[in-house]
Amino acid sequence: MSAVGDAVLYEAVGVSKSYGSVEALLDVDFKLHSGEVVGLVGDNGAGKSTLVKVLSGVHPPDSGKLVLEGVERHWASPHEALAAEIETLYQDAGLAPHLSIGANVFLGREILRPGILGRLGFMAQRQMDRAALHELAQVGIEIQGSRKTVAELSGGQRQAVAIGRAVAWARKVLLLDEPTNHLGARQALEVLEVIRKARDRGLGVVFISHTLPHVLQVCDRIVVLRLGRVVRDAPTSEFDAESLLGTITGLLEAS
Amino acid sequence: MVTSTGAVAPAGRRPGGAVRSMVRGLVGNQQFMLLIALAALVAYFTARAPVFLSNGELANILTDFCSLILLGIGETYVIASGGIDLSVGSATSLSGVVGAFAMRSLLGSHQGEALVLFVGTLVCVSIGLAIGLTNAALINWARLVPFVATLAMLGGAAGLAIVISNGEPIGLDPRAISLTTAKLGPFSYPSLVVIAIVAACWLSLHLTRYGRYTFAIGSNEFAARAAGIDVRRHVTSVYALSGALAGLAGMFVYMRLGSGAPTAGLNDELQAIAAVVIGGASLYGGVARMSGTVLGTLIITTVTSGLIISNVQANWDQVAVALLIAAAAAMQALRPARRA
Ligand SMILES: Nc1ncnc2c1ncn2[C@@H]1O[C@H](COP(=O)(O)OP(=O)(O)OP(=O)(O)O)[C@@H](O)[C@H]1O
Ligand SMILES: [Mg+2]
Q1: Which of A57, A255, B26, B158 is the most buried (most CB within 10 A)?
Q2: Distance from the alpha carbon of residue B234 to the mean position of ligand 1, in angstroms
Q3: Residues A31-51: pLDDT tens digits?
Q4: Which among B280, B334, B270 is positioned nearest to B35, based on CA atoms?
């Protein structure tokens, strides 16, 4: 495994978050270092996506704090977290189906035309289309024609575009909520390779998946959530497939 | 694909295949079909009543078009963003009435025509803008769905227009009527303004970042927010634009009637929404075309004027518009799916 920086890159300290009466996160501590892949695992409803949405600025935590590079941060919107170089692939609904692939990859980061037209908000659409294909190819995703709308893609192709978008823009923190969903076996392995490359670029990566072999394969450290609480946080070397499954379900402690 | 009739021939394989695929391409092109429909309607009404193509009648259609297209443009943005604005007709009425009060006092103190037009336009647009901002506040902060928020505004603004005008047209005097002929060169003042606004809004909706965000929000609001777009601010601006354009429509109606009538915009929101839907927009958001809205508006004004000219009983035009909406919706269902 690659070197892990000692300074914590991004951290959640004592974070809790409820939806009405549902306590989705309870006093959760979570650390991420530069050049590290942390696996976040847990059963359905354990609170993984909720933690991602707190980290990415979608939901403010009810209590606890977020610390990026030693500075406490309060995200008023995902926009602020994005500006602080926290890039996120959401579990579902991360793309706009009616927009083209190019438009989706550049959504919120449109390239404007030079000169007066650009100041009026006119976009350099062809440049974005070309760059989008290039960016997607960089992360190993080949799609013909970036002017297609996302609705015209297969589920796996959509997922690929969403991953490509997140990886292409990531500079510091990369949160990936079930990136291998909808993907075929080969494409899923390619995504693992993309994650390794992102780590080698020095990014801190959070990887969520229900496919435990993938988690064991690519992660440096694994955090297990159960019913909104962190029940285990340890280097990957301390787990094998069986003990990881046991920790997730809670059967390991019970026996 | 099951091709029992053999009608779906691969393009270019057989002689005539290229022609056939071109025909199929045009039939699948909604804009083209709208043009055909428009031409057919014009031909039909001309056959029934030849005066339909006279200058006077075309001028009438153009005047109707000028106020309805303003509502349609605003509605295009709103519908593209996944919302709906039911208040534009009432906004037209209320701003026309308030603007008429302002213009009546200016005319009373014998101000120049240009000043009267300018101040009247400013007052009307401001009232419309205020209505749009109120809609946005109800949607963004009171968390009402757009249908409910703008329905409340439809009732509120229409009621207010009647209350402050006592139900009477405001400002009818000979000098106000002279405004109806205000011209810049050979063009009427409204038609010049409308040409400029249609061009600017067409460019803005389809080529600028502003338009892109509008579609993104209508397509997937969460994705838009997650991409860092300030959804509330954008939605506010969209309803503000719709309101302001409805206010301007109020001014145009005043110029047509020579007065501000509290019922001037009654039911106009339905015609505007119909125009946008006929133009190919999806009421689920994320899909709309400015050129489609222009054609849809032309079709509706042609139908309503044509029915009047051919002496059909007045209220049939509403039924006709309803049929047009149904036809447009059916066409949408027949087109290949572009939605997720
Ligand atoms: N928007 C919401 N409103 C209300 N409750 C929610 C919402 N989102 C999640 N929850 C609840 O919060 C809890 C945690 O959900 P979360 O989506 O974080 O789980 P998860 O670990 O990502 O599960 P999965 O593996 O199925 O994706 C669940 O009980 C869920 O029902
Ligand atoms: Mg989840």
Answers
A1: A57
A2: 28
A3: 999 999 999 999 999 999 999
A4: B280
Tell me the β-bridge partners of B51. none
- CB atoms under 10 Å from CB of B105, counted, come to 13
User: Does residue A200 share a domain with residue A74?
Assistant: yes
Same domain, yes or no, for A179 and A248?
yes
CATH code of the domain occupying B52-335: 1.10.3470
Interface predicted TM-score (ipTM): 0.89
Which tens digits make up the pLDDT trace of B9-60? 343 345 566 777 777 666 667 788 889 989 998 888 888 888 888 877 888 8
The atom of ligand 1 lying closest to the CA of A42 is 21
Q: How far apart are CA B311 and CA A255, in angstroms?
A: 88
Closest of A233, A243, A241, A226 to residue A252, by C-alpha: A243
A170 dihedral zone (left: phi>0; alpha: psi -120 to 50; beta): beta
Q: Would you call B229 and A79 a contact, using CB atoms and an 8 Å cutoff?
A: yes
Q: Burial code of A189-198, b = ≥16 C-beta within 10 A, e = fewer?
A: ebbbebbeeb
Q: How many Å apart are CA B328 and CA B340, to the nearest integer?
A: 20
Structure tokens at A173: 């923190």
Whether residue A95 and residue B230 make contact (CB cut-off 8 A), yes or no, is: no
Domain containing residue A13: CATH number: 3.40.50.300
Which of A8, A12, A32, A7 is closest to A198 using CA atoms? A32
